[in-house]
Every structure is written in C-alpha cells, then in structure tokens.
Amino acid sequence: MTGTAGDGHADVVGMWVTADGHIRQELLPDGRYDEARGERHSAYTGRYTVTGSHLDYVDDTGFTATGDIRDGVLYHEHLVLYREQKPS
Predict the structure, then answer these.
(1) Closest to 54 in 3D by CA, of 44, 62, 66
(2) Cα–Cα distances in Å, from 73 out to 9, 18, 56, 67?
(3) Whole-angstrom Cα distance, residue 53 to residue 15?
(4) Structure pTM?
(5) What pLDDT does residue 69 have?
(6) What is the pLDDT of residue 28?
C-alpha cells in the first residue's frame, strides 16, 4: 500500500525532517518519495510502500531501506525524522 491511511496502515504522506532540518524527506501520496540533503534537492528519489507502520523504500538506483513509525516519529535506518508541522 502507498502512503495513505486506511486498512490499519499509517498515514505517512507529507514532509518529514531531521531535527536540524538538514534532511527533508517528502512522502508523496502516489507512493513516491523525494529526499533532499542540505542544499542538494532530490538527492534520493524512489518509491515506498507501507505495511501497518512499517515502510519499505526502493531508491531509483535500486538501493533498499526500511523505516518504522513509532509514536509519530519516522525511524528511517539511522535517521530520526519528524513530521513537518504546517504553520497555522
């Protein structure tokens, strides 16, 4: 399943960022992701699937990674990302 909530899968769509803002990972509703690192936009792009609160990533180069949502935080391999809050 892609990133939309339903059937017990976590809603992951949106922008996720590290505490220092250096890494920004946008999870798109069509199951694609676009990750920026510092000034390097689209440093990594690929697709992802969601099973429950677990994410499987496949980079466009074929590299694979995983992530898990726990208590509203995305643990993506060695990264800790927080959902970006939109200004109200």
Answers:
(1) 66
(2) 15, 10, 16, 10
(3) 16
(4) 0.87
(5) 97
(6) 97
